[in-house]
Amino acid sequence: MQSSPDEEDFHYSERIECSKIIDLFKTPSAIIIFVQGFPGCLPWGMIYVFLNDYFSSDQGMSIEAATTALTLFGVGGLFGQLLGGWVGQWLYNRDPRFQTVMMGTTTMASIGPILYLLNAPTYGDPLFYIIAFVGGIIVSVNGPNVRAVLQVRLLFALKIIFTLFSLIECLQA
Length: 173
Hints:
Blueprint: H1 5-9, H2 18-24, H3 28-58, H4 63-94, H5 96-109, H6 111-119, H7 126-140, H8 143-149, H9 155-171
């Protein structure tokens, strides 16, 4: 497939400079996003690394049952990402403030399923697996909406903020 002459001549010349990063952090919403970003990544690492061991070692579930619960949580997360992106865009088109209300609401609502999974009266029953799936949906709704909330006026700042945000997300791994 041949590229057009315009594509061949394109050269990205923007550079990330300290002064641009400093200007970026003069935006209160950018500060809030970054301040929550790193500690916000820690629970995700703990969920996928330690929760399986917690269920099997501390709560007496078999390794297969614990893995099933985490798999259902992950599949729910996939649906949560898809649903969150669709609903977030729909709400944003009506009023951008609605999207942030949805994000706050689902963040608060996600506490219940996670607390249940950690403190369930019985581990491995059907309700446990259903809550694992539903919890995965709820906690994942915000993912596709974060970048929309990070919108800034200057294109260079948008590229910097997404680069820094991606770097913080990668630190969790």
